[in-house]
Structure prediction request, 245 residues.
Amino acid sequence: MKDLETRQRAREWFHGMTALPGAWIVIRVDGRSFSRFTEERFDKPFDARFSDLMTTTAETLLTEFDGRYAYTESDEISVLLDPSFALFGRSVEKLVSLSAAAASAAFTHAAGEPAHFDSRLWLGNDTTDVLDYFTWRQADAARCALNGWCYWTMRENGSTRAEATKALERTTTSAKNELLHGYGINFNDVPVWQRRGVGLSWETFERPGFDPIRNVEVTATRRRVRVDRDLPMKDAYRDHVRRML
Prediction:
């Protein structure tokens, strides 16, 4: 039996790649086939119910991996891990597989039906890299939000899928804003969380309690996740993220 076990274990395949020591890590999970999943279940272009599910999932990841900061937009979540993070020996395989599993389980539990995520890692050398990363993701949120509002506004006003897609090809940002104005929509009036995403961070608070041994009232300091749906943008957003670092 021992020889059999040895032969079978020799067939197990995994890699031993680890994230570089001292590097910042961002775990980014994305929903698998979420375009179809959301189109069948949620309002377009945005649905607060779906955003709440993504925020709940982001909170789970931030807590499970003890991250510094989490950010979610559309069907993706980014979780920032400290350079000193050492869980699982910083194994890429472990972090990718477990984060995808945790996100899938959390979303499925909250939604009441199965959904799946994949995962990847991003590595940064210093805080400037981290700020660049989250600036990039927020810019993507704004771009996707504008595209989404244009596409679904056209669809709701009679355009076919092909017509709406073609109309937006190689269209400038200003032209897209003008398109929405033509339908009476000012993109700047769209809720902030749709245009800039949602941030999650840790905050401390004091909790009253009682010490039965000393028979006195006491105050304990605890921490909890703070959800920010009114994020700033550009340089102000970089300053906001910098405070987490």
